[in-house]
């Protein structure tokens, strides 16, 4: 915590990319505590890929904590490369985000900061490269925070986000190669919202056309089967025809399993002439 506070104090002014998840919420709270509302802005990117209940929680957290809160609209769906949903989709999303946040930060002589933690560096996260190319910094990484450290520190601070399940953007539910659209983002969002109303906190609804593959923790499988009629109704009401339950349980980021890195680039590498984009290909392309 001392290192993190020192990193933020040296930055003096920051714009925190605030998604409402455990990491960005923790960073936003500490930045506000260190720099005050005049030195720290929490900015939420609003687009169809952000679940409605996640946006509502961002607003609620900002009000509860007295954050200097700002919402910006992002237009990743206007980018053909994002819609095509290749393995670099997240790069285009973060590049769009930086395009919106950098002018805000520049006008305030601030830096854009993201809630990336040390554990994130080992995953397929092309968005990190786009963020660095845009000048963002990762204070949690600089201070040595893992995901477990973030949750533990948040719990000790009394932040209700300490045990909030990870909730990546809705586009992450769509397999690579399937176009991202308002229709399938909406279907995923409605299905997940319906399942949360049934009491399932941690979940993913993977989109395969008319078929939805539900991922929940293994410990919740028995409950889902016991309430299968309600589960089916919630998912079909979102527009799906077929409802399946993944017996392997919830596995964040498992759609990356079918990818092979062709030209790997470490998360802390300098952006190349391709603007920092890693080259990925489906496993079947080998």
Number of helices: 11
* Strand ordering within the main sheet: 3-2-1-4
Mean pLDDT score: 90
Q: How many whole angstroms does the radius of gyration measure?
A: 19 Å
The ordered string of helix (H) and strand (E) elements is HEHEHEHHEHHHHEEHHEEE
Ends: how far apart? 45 Å
- Name the overall outline: globular
Q: Characterize the main sheet.
A: 4 strands, parallel
Point out poorly predicted stretches: 260-286
β-strand number? 9
Helix/strand structural class? alpha/beta
Strand content: 15-25%
- Portion in helices: 40-55%
How would you concisely characterize the structure shown here?
With 286 residues, this protein is of the alpha/beta class. The chain has 11 helices and 9 strands.
Walk me through the structure.
The protein is 42% helix and 15% strand. With 286 residues, it is an alpha/beta fold. The strands form three sheets. A four-stranded parallel beta sheet has the order 3-2-1-4, sandwiched between helices. The chain has a three-stranded mixed beta sheet with strand order 5-6-7, covered by helices on one side. Helix 5 (89-107) runs parallel beside helix 6 (126-133). The longest helix has 19 residues, at 89-107. Residues 260-286 have low confidence and may be disordered.
